[in-house]
């Protein structure tokens, strides 16, 4: 089943939902979606009608500076300097540049050595992820997690891939609470 057949079904299902579109609703597909043929773009216009996703993504809150009645608004802590990577560890091409690497134009075919390297890096990634999960406890700072993960990766002879990718200053992303993605580890203790 191609993705082209799923999209019309999803739209059709949404349009038939009486909670989203009551029978006397003035909404139509034309008003729900705006299509610009010259640009080839389609975007949803009334997304806020359907869910609080827009508010969540753009960090909007109701109330007195809190996400909900139990938790205070997220405040950044102090970010420590970039951690050292020993010279014997090979750097990816993006290190030293704030430019992101290009996307491959086609499939990459690996030989036996390449496949063995992919298996080893996948195993290390799984081990690091499992280890990082054990560090997540109240009172621990995300900077302490970053330090431990960084050390584990370089002790394995590898380069921590988030470090310097597009200018990212740390070896792990730590998105806390309403921080959606690419949270930078800092001095805030976890609660």
UniProtKB/TrEMBL annotation:
Pfam families: Peptidase_M24. GO terms for cellular component: chloroplast. Residues 63-91 are annotated as: Disordered. Keywords: Aminopeptidase, Hydrolase, Protease. Residues 116-190 form the Peptidase M24 domain. It comes from the Eukaryota. InterPro entries: Creatinase/aminopeptidase-like, Pept_M24. Transmembrane segments: none annotated. This is Methionine aminopeptidase. One of its GO terms (molecular function) is metalloaminopeptidase activity.
């Amino acid at each position: 089943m191609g993705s082209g057949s799923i999209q019309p079904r999803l739209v059709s299902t949404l349009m038939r939902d009486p909670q989203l579109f009551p029978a006397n609703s003035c909404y139509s597909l034309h008003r729900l979606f705006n299509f610009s043929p010259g640009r080839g773009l389609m975007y949803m216009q009334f997304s806020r009608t359907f869910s609080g996703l827009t508010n969540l993504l753009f960090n909007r809150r109701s109330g007195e500076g809190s996400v909900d009645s139990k938790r205070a608004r997220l405040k950044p802590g102090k970010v420590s300097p970039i951690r050292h990577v020993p010279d014997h560890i090979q750097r990816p091409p993006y290190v030293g540049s704030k430019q992101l690497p290009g996307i491959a134009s086609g499939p990459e075919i690996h030989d036996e050595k390449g496949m063995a390297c992919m298996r080893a890096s996948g195993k290390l990634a799984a081990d690091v992820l499992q280890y990082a999960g054990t560090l997540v406890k109240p009172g621990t700072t995300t900077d302490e997690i970053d330090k431990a993960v960084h050390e584990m990766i370089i002790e394995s002879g590898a380069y921590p891939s988030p470090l310097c990718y597009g200018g990212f200053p740390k070896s792990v992303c730590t998105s806390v609470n309403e921080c959606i993605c690419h949270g930078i580890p800092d001095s805030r203790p976890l609660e």
